[in-house]
Amino acid sequence: MKVVVNPQGGHLEDVSIGSANGTTIRPLHRAHWRTGENNGGVPEAFDGTVAPTLQSLAGDFFCAPFGKDDISGTPEHGLPANGTWLYEQGVNHQDGGVTAIFRLSETILGAKLFKQITLRPGHPVVYQRHKFVGGCGDLSIAHHPMLRISQGAKLSFSKKAFGATPDSAVETDPSRGFSALKYPQEFDSLSRVRLREGGEVDLTVQPGPSDAEDFLVLAEDKNSTLGWTAAVLPAAGYVYFAVRDPGVLPFTMVWMSNGGRRYPPFSGRHRGVIGLEEGCTFFGAGSAVSAGRNWLNDRGYKTAVSLNPDGQTIVDFAFGAIPLPAGWTEVTDISAAEEQLVLTASQGEQARVPFNRDWLSTL
């Protein structure tokens, strides 16, 4: 198991998960300009007009605020996704596991922010903890993991109450891009989402509409105790899964990037990519709107976290991947057992994944 962290923006540049059958899974997406796949294998360089978070776009990263940064004025997704992370300490655990601790060089609303990444032997899981120490104020937050699903994927989630698109499309200027969904809208199922030009689309089957850039939010059922996300990628041969405390991160945001942005660095080539982002936010509107009254918190959902000036604010998130079991087409449930996550497929088949359940407070 290996995780490479880019100090610019704290993006997980490369995640490699070994499996019992000898294969190595690299489940997360790295942008074309990071891999250099359109530039002879050499990562592309950009001037200051391209935000650091886009230049570094890879894997998973932490956002605070999520979307518009109306706190520090940095580009989209705030200082954690654009600033500099400093290596603080490594911890060796008795079971052979390791934890790497990083600190954001900048502060957010007066808070120090620490990133902890833990790997444990035999666990195909990346455990992450972000810890704000001190600070005062409210802000939106999210994790931003991405998969490349150009060869196809089937998505599934813990029970959701509803889904919605924001007031405005991701791309509104036809000369710069195109969004295929209807904005705004509310829907009961991701399998029936309305298109701007009429009709519906099943977005549990990916990739979604071609030559389009779209975004939506799924609100967790309020009785949920374990929030989970899963993607079955038959051609790639693996199952991606993620778990979180829905009391802290009550929304899953789905970003579908499939050739709908014509401007650099996307340039129409960023296709078959999906962000399965877990957060506490009012869409991508920034912290002022997320912390203020909005229609999501009117329905009883937290859309911002409150920092504790005399203590800590902790956000936990874990993701992993396993080789695709024979015959699996969809994950229908993820539950927690004794030191395991149990993934259940559509025909009732189960895969048991080693998991440190004490790490997630909701369990």
Structural notes for this entry:
The structure is a single chain. With 363 residues, the chain is mainly beta. Helices cover 6% and strands 40% of the residues. The chain is built from five helices and 27 strands. It has helices at 32-35, 52-55, 78-82, 287-291, 295-298; strands at residues 2-5, 12-18, 24-25, 62-63, 85-92, 98-104, 112-119, 125-133, 138-139, 141-143, 146-148, 153-157, 160-165, 185-187, 193-194, 200-201, 205-206, 212-220, 227-233, 238-244, 251-258, 273-280, 305-306, 312-323, 331-337, 340-345, 350-354. The strands form six sheets. Strands 5-6-7-8-24-20-19-12-17 form a nine-stranded antiparallel β-sheet, with no helix packed on it. A hairpin with a 5-residue loop joins strand 15 (193-194) and strand 16.
Summarize the structure.
The chain is built from five helices and 27 strands.
Give the SSE map:
Elements: E1 2-5, E2 12-18, E3 24-25, H1 32-35, H2 52-55, E4 62-63, H3 78-82, E5 85-92, E6 98-104, E7 112-119, E8 125-133, E9 138-139, E10 141-143, E11 146-148, E12 153-157, E13 160-165, E14 185-187, E15 193-194, E16 200-201, E17 205-206, E18 212-220, E19 227-233, E20 238-244, E21 251-258, E22 273-280, H4 287-291, H5 295-298, E23 305-306, E24 312-323, E25 331-337, E26 340-345, E27 350-354
Antiparallel strand pairs: 1-2, 2-3, 4-10, 5-6, 6-7, 7-8, 8-24, 9-23, 10-22, 11-22, 12-17, 12-19, 13-14, 13-18, 15-16, 18-21, 19-20, 20-24, 21-22, 25-26, 26-27
Please mark out the parts with pLDDT under 50 across 5 or more consecutive residues, or reply none.
none
- Lateral arrangement of strands in the main beta sheet: 5-6-7-8-24-20-19-12-17
* Range of strand content: 35-45%
The average pLDDT score comes to 96
How many distinct beta strands? Answer: 27
Query: So how many helices?
Result: 5
| CA-atom Rg in angstroms | 19 Å
- Quote the distance from N terminus to C terminus: 25 Å
* Main sheet summary: 9 strands, antiparallel
Helical amount: under 10%
Shape: globular
Q: What structural class is derived from the secondary structure elements?
A: mainly beta
